[in-house]
Write a structure and sequence with these properties.
The complex is a heterodimer. Chain A is α/β, with parallel strands linked by helices. In chain A, 38% of the residues lie in helices and 13% in strands. The chains are: A alpha/beta, B mainly alpha. Chains A and B meet through α11, α14, α15 and α20 of A and α1, α3 and α6 of B.
Chain lengths: 650, 131
């Protein structure tokens, strides 16, 4: 076998400088490729001594026996990730990823990207999910071949449904002749992407480092093009672990150019504006609208141009909740004559309702003749198998475009389309909403008082009011959804900045909440370490993978987790009881398999064992304020804290 | 674990319960509020309506005030076919339901929010512009 005795001469600084400055950049001095290996010499190689096989592949001669003759391919992979400004790789360590793991730590100095130790691949992907919604850019999750990706699958689906960009990477060794028998072969797969292809936007299995560089840049670009979605990149073990081949051509990292989000067709947008301008009761419904702070401003501008109420479906932080046009809940749908749906996942469910009854009755929630307008990217990209696209809803104007990018044009057209004779009516609509806001707020506050205010277990309104009292003067952010306490935070708190809320899991897969909150906190901590990250944590969700608490502690991410501990998979109690009701059988058995008791979980002790300050359980509402205050003081000292609060069901 | 209970229960039950408060004072069989509270927990009323009948995301307020007079409440519980599942006599006897009704009537009136500092100080929320 012919071999070339030469160093690759790879210079990491040149890689990076080339990628960052010139865009298409990184060069490896050309060397002649070795002749193809003889079949006889491509013998089985036993781990961990793969150097011989790698040398055969690359044509390099090791500097000393058992070592590589030059930089491994995974060093280049790290350079590619760095060129894409990937800050974190969330991962549970695995043999199929050992090459890039070592490169991140030693070649990259464990900075940009930093290896974040996770205790479950599902948690790792969920962390990238939460991270994306704060940082506005993807992080990477690195998964072991086959079993690791199987663990990760549910979290990938959540990110898919929630339109969250994530770089999922999986290790694999495709060549059966160079992998160990036993577990390494059990964990190898012919087509890694097939496992999650139905709910990733793109995947690839690069067969060379140049292929990897181009595909990773392409994947990043695809993930960050609306609809933002996760992608999968296979990291072939041979590419990771072999010394870089001395090819004729230098390796390059393509320059990244992101796609400008598509705005709507001007003619269609003008028709939408005409309908809205001529409506007596226009209603705007917003789901995942505001990708950036600008999206919040654009939505407010449109609402104020029309003086139309905005029903927030809480997919993102879309609009300040103390704005006089802000609405929580869909009651106004029934009165609307024109409904504008912005990035709705479920337009059908917005204008229809269906009982969860034995008969399963459906009925329309809107008046006959109500015009429907849709602006969103959901129609631009869809898959067949998983049903996250929801029921089909016919609309009058369907604009396949990014809502945030389209809103300025729509607002301008609306202003032009409102005839002079209707402007007084439009203004009066706004004044009525402004005057109604104060009365509505008093009704809301009385409802809070009447919501079992002094009860133990602690009520949802008391829980939320006590928490608000402690955080309202802090630089707070909510890194969770607030549906379990019946959206009381969105009724009682003032959400006025885009980064203060991240929406929910998307796919409603349980186990998202805790790791997504940790991932979001990583992003907040990097952006502004003074932010107080508050996680309202469902008890059942936390027990899927409580190791996420350890990740926060290990990486010194201070955050306040307040447990919404209703000691059950509460929704499932209701479902089980409903079945018994329909069948006229014993309803008192609904706790079987649905409650988390006998014994109760001591979350404070669990958290302490995982490196947190643990407080609680708190059962008396009069003690909650002091517990929260103590917890926040510890967070401000740099500690992650969990406060266990025993609560009413919802 | 995945399908949410529909919030439509709030709307349907609200329509059914909403205008009947005036009848709540109609004569009802005398029940035992203590037993009623136990029944309320045992048969799972609290799951949607909260431990004090205060309501929540899945079910409307049914105490303070009790929104239906006895005959209407009984009929509702027995025959509802919407998001709230029916409780037939096979799973909840008349006597047990009467006790639950007594419990709901015994729930004390909620305080005025203006007497609660945590809430009264929030009467005016700053209308902060978007940033």
């Amino acid at each position: 076998m012919a071999r070339k005795n030469a160093s690759t001469g790879v210079d990491r600084r040149k890689f990076l400088a080339g990628a960052a400055v010139a865009g298409a950049a990184t060069a490896i001095p050309a060397v002649k490729r070795a002749k193809a290996a003889d079949a006889d010499t491509a013998a089985f190689v036993k781990r961990p001594s793969t150097a011989a096989a790698q040398a055969e592949m690359s044509g390099n001669v090791p500097a000393s026996p058992g070592t590589l003759s030059g930089p491994p391919g995974s060093d280049f992979m790290v350079d590619v990730l760095r060129s894409l400004d990937v800050d974190f790789v969330f991962s549970n360590p695995a043999s199929s990823c050992r090459g890039i793991h070592e490169s991140i730590v030693n070649y990259g100095g464990n900075k940009k990207p930093e290896f974040i130790t996770c205790m479950h691949e599902e948690s790792a992907v969920a962390m990238t999910h939460g991270y994306y919604k704060v940082a506005g850019k993807p992080a990477a999750a690195l998964c072991h071949g086959t079993v690791g990706l199987q663990h990760a699958a549910m979290a990938v689906y959540n990110a898919w449904c929630d339109r969250a960009a994530s770089i999922v990477m999986v290790g694999n060794r495709a060549d059966a002749a160079t992998r160990e028998p036993g577990v390494p072969t059990i964990h190898a797969v012919q087509d890694p992407g097939s496992l999650i292809r139905d709910f990733t936007k793109w995947d690839d299995n690069p067969q060379s480092l140049q292929h990897f560089g181009e595909s990773m840049v392409r994947a990043y670009k695809i993930a960050m093009t609306p609809p933002h979605e996760p992608i999968l990149m296979v990291l072939e073990e041979k590419l990771q672990e072999s010394a870089m081949a001395k090819g004729e051509k230098p390796l390059t990292i393509p320059k990244l150019n992101l796609v400008a989000p598509p705005a709507g067709d001007p003619n269609a947008v003008r028709e939408a504006a005409r309908l809205l301008a001529m409506a007596d009761n226009p209603v705007i419904v917003a789901d995942r609208v505001a990708r950036t702070p600008a999206g919040v401003k654009h939505l407010v501008d449109l609402a104020e141009a029309l003086n139309a109420p905005v029903i927030d479906q809480l997919g993102r932080m879309n609009m300040p909740n103390n704005h006089h046009l802000y609405q929580l809940g869909g009651a106004l749908i029934a009165q609307a004559d024109v409904i504008l749906g912005l990035e709705l996942t479920d337009f059908w469910g917005t204008v229809n309702e269906m009982d969860d009854s034995a008969a399963g009755e459906q009925k329309l929630r809107i008046k006959p003749g109500t015009k429907l307008i849709s602006i969103g990217v959901g129609d631009l990209y869809i898959r067949a198998n998983y049903q996250d696209f929801e029921r089909y809803q016919s609309v009058d104007v369907s604009i396949g475009a990014d809502a945030e990018a389209t809103l300025p044009m729509l607002t301008e057209y609306v202003k032009q389309a409102i005839p002079a004779e209707r402007r007084a009516m439009v203004a009066a609509r706004g004044e009525k909403a402004r005057k109604g806001q104060a009365a509505a707020r008093e009704r809301m506050l009385q409802a809070a008082a009447a919501n079992a205010w002094d009860a133990s277990p602690i009520s949802s309104s008391r829980f939320s009011a006590e928490l608000w009292q402690q955080i309202k003067n802090q630089n707070w952010v909510l890194v969770s959804r607030d549906s379990s306490p019946s959206n009381w935070p969105h009724r009682l708190w003032n959400f006025d900045q885009h980064h203060q809320f991240i929406g929910g899991p998307g796919g409603a897969g349980i186990g998202y909440g805790l790791p997504a909150a940790v991932g979001a906190s990583f992003a907040h901590h990097a952006a502004d370490s003074s932010r107080l990250c508050v996680n309202i944590q469902n008890d059942g969700d936390s027990m899927y993978a409580p190791g996420a608490l350890w990740t926060a502690a290990h990486h010194k991410i201070p955050m306040l987790t307040v447990m919404w501990n209703n000691r059950a998979y509460h929704q499932e109690i209701m479902h089980l009881q409903r079945m018994a009701n329909w069948r006229q059988r014993d309803v008192t058995t609904a706790h079987v398999g649905t409650t988390i008791r006998e014994p109760f979980v001591n979350y404070a002790k669990l958290a302490e064992a995982l490196g947190h300050v643990g407080i609680g359980p708190v059962t008396d509402p009069k003690e909650l304020g002091a517990a929260l205050k103590r917890g926040i003081e510890a967070v401000k000292m740099g500690e992650p804290v969990l406060i266990d609060v025993v609560t009413q069901p919802r | 674990m995945r399908m949410p209970i529909s919030a439509a229960a709030l709307i349907i039950a609200g329509l059914m319960f909403g205008s009947s408060a005036a009848f709540a004072a109609q004569a009802a069989p005398q029940g035992d509020a203590v037993k009623g509270k136990a029944n309320f927990e045992r048969v799972g009323c609290y799951q949607c309506h909260g431990h004090q009948g205060q309501g929540g995301r899945e079910g409307p307020r049914i105490a303070d005030p009790v929104p239906l007079a006895w005959p209407a409440l009984q009929a509702w519980v027995r025959t509802t076919s919407g998001d709230m599942p029916p409780y037939t006599p096979k799973v909840l006897s008349d006597a047990e339901l009467i006790d639950i009704y007594a419990y709901l009537q015994s729930v004390p009136k909620a305080p005025d929010f203006k007497s609660i500092p945590l809430l009264s100080q929030q009467i005016t929320a700053a209308n902060v512009p978007a940033r």
